[in-house]
Amino acid sequence: MQTATTVSATKASPARKASLRRDRRRALVWSYVFLVIFVIFFLTPPVYMVITSLKTSAEISAASNPWWVFKPTLQNYIELLTSPTYLTFFRNSALVSLLTVAITMAVSIPAAFALSRLKFWGSATLATGVFLTYLVPNTLLFIPLFGIFAFLHDITGIEFLNHWWVLIIVHPMLTVPFCTWIMIGYFASIPKELDEAALIDGAGYLQILTKIFIPVALPGIIAATIFAFTVSWADFLYPLAFTTSTDQLVLPVGIVTTLIKGDVFNWGQIMTGALLGAAPPLIIYAFLMDYYIAGLTAGATKG
Amino acid sequence: MVDAVARGVHVSTGGRRMTLRKFVRRKSTIAFAMTLPLILIIGTLVVYPAFYSFYLAMLNKSMQHFVGLANFSFLFTRETFWMVVKQSIIFAVSAVVFKALIGFMVAHFVHNIPVRGQRKWRGMLLVPWVMPPAMSVLAWLWLFDPSYSAFNWLLEKIGASGVPWLGNPYWARFAVILVNVWIGAPFFMIMYLAALKSVPEQLYEAAAIDGANWWQKMWFITLPMMRNIIAITVLFSLIVTFANFDIVRILTSGGPVNQTDVFATWAFRIGIESNDIPLGACVSLFMFPILAIAAIFILRDISKRGNEA
Known about the structure:
The structure holds two protein chains of two kinds.
Chain A: H1 2-12, H2 14-53, H3 57-61, H4 75-81, H5 84-117, H6 123-135, H7 142-156, H8 166-170, H9 172-188, H10 192-200, H11 205-216, H12 218-234, H13 237-242, H14 251-258, E1 260-261, E2 264-265, H15 267-287, H16 289-301
Helix pairs in contact in A: 2-15, 4-15, 5-9, 5-12, 5-14, 6-9, 9-12, 12-15, 12-16, 14-15
Chain B: H1 2-12, H2 17-56, H3 70-76, H4 79-112, H5 115-125, H6 127-130, H7 133-143, H8 150-157, H9 169-197, H10 201-209, H11 214-242, H12 246-251, H13 263-273, H14 277-285, H15 287-308
């Protein structure tokens, strides 16, 4: 009905149709103009990182155009990738992130299953609690955690601080609530008929989880995995607060603290290190962009 | 329907009451076993530290005497504290407003162009959000470098004089807000784009027939349809921005003279670097009320949406 009216209306006035088309075209052109401006704004820092990373120290301190590379060199990359310190940072970061992802998935998938399907006393409250803890920023709790680790050292003799593995203990706090929360959303969208059919066929709850829920909600699991990895990889505050020795640092802190020596900034190396440090999340994003965005939007749109 | 059938099945086999009861018990034990690790993590890493920080905040510097609220009253007498309060609020509010505005605009631009090209543009626009903040802030630090600033080079090329990006308190605050907006705006863009796509096209068609102009469509259709998502993203971003640490820490380290310090960086300086854990805990506790208020609003919004659905 509606479309019929519009069609007859536009047929009646070809001049109006032409002006509409012109309006749309103009809107399109302006959209592209502004998109280009914003893309320049958003991509300037990463592009500038690439430019600087390809320069020698001499070229960086010369008064030439900073936005152009006159004598491109891979020297910075070679130096960093053969430096044992930098490779240690990389190894620490990789170990911390991968183990955090493993722990996060092992905890949040069963918990999300229980919270979305096995209604039990307090399950609704616990689900709300999970969401609330997701809202707690890490800056709120690093001092008490620091105090707790110091206290534990006094009573047990185990030194928690200044070991890279302490991050595996604290990072689940950042990743588990969000992953559980979005997995609850994904699991809740699976039709109840599926698990009822399985129950009637005599499957146990563990079988329902591993044979039905995990395969069906795989996109959600991938999104949660990406999230956990990125958060753990990017965390800067906890490693800065809890680790100090050079061999225990993870990438973000390692680059900030060791490549800046006193007041001497070796910007070529800093930018190369930062670029390589940003590479794993960026590569994951490049290949799994749709999962990444699904995870990002699921957190707030699935209530 | 299915529920009723399933219940019927249980009732019909109700003769074996023991197995039924065992079944129920098994379900709850399984549920408990599955959520136990989650409860332990939230309990030991979030709830316990939260309470512990209240206790810590009431100790003296050597953590041996209980001093009650002395730390709090000491903070109130310090000028730096009030400066930190002011700066945290200014940074959070202005950064969130600009993130939301830019995100809203860019989402519309992406929504306007043909669907085929949207993926590519969206992919480029989300890069700041994907990069680890510590790494991208280093790039900004280099762009703002006092002697080799690439921005100043451009400014000097067009005849303007260079700007002391991080040396002057006002420019340093501007720089912190700018980097904040740069990192956060893509998140808003993605959320608003998803919301824009969920607005039914018929509403706009109907409005067009009624002769609505662009502003009316925006005001009476787009904004009401996106109200919830705007509220949630703003509140969520308010929490994250207010409690931000990485940007200020790397960019200015709170300087010049605490004029860009926020709660998180100041608490770090006092608690970890100056080794006054109680006072640091005290400072970070001040983030709590604002976060709690935002959290209450978010929760109310989410449960409201749950009822509508």
